[in-house]
Every structure is written in C-alpha cells, then in structure tokens.
C-alpha cells in the first residue's frame, strides 16, 4: 500500500485517533477537533481508504455513529532470518560500539550463514 499524502488537518485527526487505543466515536470526534461533521466524515473516509483507520457502525446515546480506531499492523519478522544454521545474528545481543565494516562477530556469522546454506 502506498502511503497517502496527508494534510496537516488529516494528520491531526489521525494523531487524535491514535491517542485513543479503544477508539473514539465519530459523533464526538468532529466536536473534539472543532471541525464540522462533513469535513470530519470526508477526512475519515480518506484515512479509512488509505488503511490507517477502521470504522465500525454502532449506536451511541441512541444515535447511529461509527467507532473509529487505528488499524493495527502486525510487524512480524521471520526469526529464521536472524539465524545462520544454529547461530543467531550477533547484533541481536551486541553491546559493542558498532563498526560494521570491521566486525569479526558479524563476519564469522556471515561465513556460518554461507556455509549453512551450502549444506
Ligand atoms: S555489526 Fe558487530 S559490532 Fe555492530 S552490532 Fe553487529 S555484532 Fe555488534
């Protein structure tokens, strides 16, 4: 997904929603932000289409509205990418001052990775 170009107002709306982990009601959001409901609705549609937020239809105080939440993206990493054979990349637990071009630990790990690929 390509990141949308967000205006300052849209970025503010997104930050406001992000600050409410349990979500916020659309019917309250536009009032909190001091924008009119149509503008708020248009911004939320753009953020929803861009994959930033999700809206769930609901009732609040007897009125139909949406519960608006940030879309949580799972950032996962394949742990096998950190492994060379049975050895994990040394950077994971390294507290040395990093000099990547001359790092013997990383060099050894890369050699092990290459040799484990050849087996
Ligand atoms: S490259 Fe070497 S020094 Fe740098 S973080 Fe990795 S193991 Fe540590």
From TrEMBL:
Question: This protein is called what?
Answer: MarR family transcriptional regulator
Q: Which InterPro entries match?
A: ArsR-like_HTH, HTH_MarR-typ, WH-like_DNA-bd_sf, WH_DNA-bd_sf
Q: Give the Gene3D superfamilies listed for this entry.
A: Winged helix-like DNA-binding domain superfamily/Winged helix DNA-binding domain
Domain HTH marR-type, first and last residues per copy: 1-119
Q: Which species expresses this protein natively? A: Methanocorpusculum vombati
Origin superkingdom: Archaea
